[in-house]
What does this fold into?
Amino acid sequence: MARMHRIGVMFSTAGSYGVVSRAMLNGALLAFREIAQAGGPLALEPVIVNPAGDLARYRELSCELLKAGVRHVVGCYTSSSRKEVIPCFEKFDGLLWYPSHYEGFESSDNVIYTGASPNQHVLPLVDYMASRVAMRVFCVGSNYIWAWENNRIFREALAARGGVVAAERYLTVGDTEFDQVIAAILDLRPDFVFNNLIGTSAYAFFRAFRAACRSRGLDQAADIPVASCTLSEPELAEIGSDAIDGHLTASVYFSSLQSQANATFVRAYARTFPDMPVACADAEASYIAVKLMATALQRAGTDEARAVRAAVANQSLLAPQGEVRIDPQTFHAWLTPRIGRSNVNGQFDVLMEAPGPVAPDPYLVQSQPRFAVAMRPPVLRVVQA
It folds into this structure.
């Protein structure tokens, strides 16, 4: 008889970033389905909860799941929700499998990170924009840790290459009023915009910015392109056809990747969720999390968090994006960075990609270009001999 493990699945499918969260839920459910169809000595029962974007509910639901004997939870999209629940996992000794790109600068014995670290999405985007677009940027983001930290990393990395941040603006998550921000962008005329808005805020910004540029006779995608580390295929449909194309994105996965593994994944995703948008990086990251978790549970022979964490170290998987493996030092994933540009068909054309998976560097200790400015000693003048 197969050993049954109850697995928490926690995504906010209602709320301002529900489109992405639904994709993450779908990716996880597809993995559960494939594991069940394959049979074998392991059975996983997903226990789905929906915090609806409420930080307090993230914490409450996490503690409820862990107190009820669930030791593993795949979940969270925003960094604020992840920060909110980690104390629960540390207190009750569970494992959070976090399937989202994020800003880094974190390590917990109770988290396995299957999304991109900053050296796998922010720094490749800096390199691309600095070498192929220009060096003067306007940063805009949702007012929480993801945008604050991403903009800080971007600013320091761009400054190390001689670039400059013309301005930064932050808006409340879910805010869709952009008149003042867009007016400031058009007054400053930066070379590009670095976008860290999420959910409905991002979709409204793309539409409003394209319309404002058009009213001034500007070709927005060519004259002031928008670059992101978050924009995905399901979100392009939310933006709408009038502003869907020409946006640059750093990611480790695009559904347009040409490989047998990805073709199989895309077909399975479309067949399982025929009324949903195409697969995206967020869906793939949660799919990867469940697949890696299942293998680790089987190898460990128990769902005890420490044993499973040890079993997942160095574990590899042929994922839709290519080879993925868990780094035994950081428990973040080795992933393949890519740069894509959105097109009118709601897909991304892949412009650049790394030749293979890149080691995660969540604290950027190996990514020296970021520190070139910070390490430059200050020039002091003698005040008193």
Summary: The longest strand covers residues 3-10.
